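Reply to dn_fold:

You asked what the input looked like. This is it:
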Amino acid sequence: MTTRMRPIESTIPLEDALRIIEAAVQPIQRIERVALADAHDRVLAHDVGSTIDVPPFARAAMDGYAVRAADTNGASRGTPRSLTRIGQVFTGQVTPQRVQSGQCIEIATGAPLPDGADAVVIVEDTASTVDRIDVFTAVEANQNIGRQGADIHRGQTVLYSGDLLTPGKIGVIAALGLTEVDVYARPRVAVLSTGNEIVDPGQPLAAGQIYDINKFTVSALVSRHGGIPVAYRTPMDTLEDLSRGVDEGCREDVLVFSGGSSVGERDLMLDVIAAKGEVLFHGISVKPGKPTAFGRIGTSLDGGQSRLVFGMPGYPTSCLTNGYLLLVPALRKIARLPPWQPHVATLPLGARISSVTGRRQFYTVRVEKGVVLPAFKASGDITSMSRADGYIDIPADVTGVDQGTPVDVVFF
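and this is what came back:
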């Protein structure tokens, strides 16, 4: 039987592929309410305004004595001002006593300021007897106290739609007494592998079969960058079963498949995508990862935009590399997350790296004792990624990078 190969007719630069994806991607519109305890790293869907003052009462900022500031005028070590201590107040308490002229109340940090007092003298600036306090430093009105509403005032907008909920922003919401918050939903990403040779881990391998790697690496990448991976079954290499697999995957917001977009006779996924929607590009001038595709299918379940489809190479290193380069920026835009800004360090290369001209190469490396060493073995070897700390970007017109050359390592 003669095999009918279908070569990739042309490739496009990575920058063009990113522009096509950027133009097709739309931020998610769905909103859900989540418990505040689960809101970290979510994206706020509505402005948050305060219905209370924070703090809701004036409070002591230091341990000491609540006083009338005027009673401390002229106080010094040589000429202290003597006040009568009429009580004490701790955090969580409200004293019914009112500070009159010549009086003071012992107060703990954070405790509500008693009526009549307008300042706090810190304990270090006093000396005490049983019921008398000598004040050695004069204070002004409002000194050493936190005013009611000094942090947040009633009616103030404290957070805005689109804010990423960091720990500090979670704290602001908690300060308002809220237990839930409206956030944008995480995009659901269907992840499926193709190929009759693919078997799920845990199953016995028959002759010619391999365990599925891409379903798990892509799912981990999706989880890390704001999405919810949904693993789908591996369809058989027939138009009918691949079509069913695509229909099933399009229940989600995005479909990512690996394999089925190369040049073999059974690489039929692009036929399925083209029949149901459109292929926006197929083939990128990068190494590894040339047989990468992108398209869209139909309309979304809520009547909005079409489902985006990423066709990743079947080889594990190629699949995961282009996941970082193409899927991550798209997914983060859909999820309304800030762009990914990986750590980059310039370090010397510890061994010469050869490159093939004509294709931009993203070469995986590891860093040992401040020196960059090759990690790439082959596109089909997952250890090219598992033993790598990041990658270096080798331009298409470069045939090699010599030992000792400073290179920019982009860390995963």
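The mean pLDDT is 93.
Hope that clears it up.
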